[in-house]
Specification:
347 residues; alpha+beta; 13 helices; elongated
Length: 347
Amino acid sequence: MALGYKTDQDKAFVIDEPAARAVRIAFDMFIDGKPNADICGYLNSLGFRTSRGNLFGKNSIPKLIQNEKYIGVYKCGDIRLENAMPALITRETFELARAELGRRRVSKQAALSKVKYLLSGIAVCGCCGKNLVGVSGTGKSGEKYYYYYCPTARTKKGCAKKQVPRDWLEDLVVDATLRNVLQPGAIRYIAQKCYELQIEDDSYENEAAFYRKRLADNRKALANLLKALESGLDSSSVTARVKELEQENLSLGKELKRLDAEHIVLTPERIEFMLLRYAAPERDDAARKAEILNTFVMQARLYDDKLVVLYHINDAQPRFRQNEIAIPEADVFDHDENWWSIGDSNP
């Protein structure tokens, strides 16, 4: 069972609040850009453990961040049920973590190779549903080309989708997002929705109450242990437990201070200002493209005659959630005549 949940007497999923705190801390720290190792160390220092009772390790955080159960999604085989479980975090928090995960993957790929495919994991073949793969190849003229292709089509297993130029597809998705989402009307709508969600969110009070209770319980336990020592009980185990509780109280106190410091409700105007930075044309083009795609785009389905872009905007008006663009054939295939004569391709 996922960390943060348990079942009640009717075998229904309910939130296990003590463990749920670990999940929320992990998401907050991950979104803030903290390394996975730091998140694990911090959770372990607070006395939290994984669902199996183990210390958090390097693989714990990526798995946790991508678990859709935390937004109420339950999967069983090919069946995907929305709102089947109590949501432990908001969908906005989950999407922010996804965006940060995408940013880290892009950064990791950039460290391994100078060639970037910003739509990796986002671009999908509209004909067969497979993720498009970014590869490079050399044309007859000797020029290097970069493109996305459907792996099913490449292995000739029933899909006829042709490969498309990398820059053409990435620019098309970015331009669609700028026209559809990063416009004054859409930005105002998103900013207002984000503000309303902040007002409705009571997670701060719940988390603060949890830490205050934990601190109070620890102080009571410490007082009892200190009385035992004062009465003459000489036990190394008691002394060790006193030190352990004192250290845990320090960590809990720091976490409570962090919660207080971060409990800021942003105004719609402030959120709007933050969103507008994505549309600033004077920013570095490559970095701007990557941020727009990772932050706003959930999926880009490429067909032969159209592109359908889905956005990370929950409960928004239909025109802000999805955008469909017709693709004239000439827009794709008007390239160097050697383009479609590429020989061996190297990922």
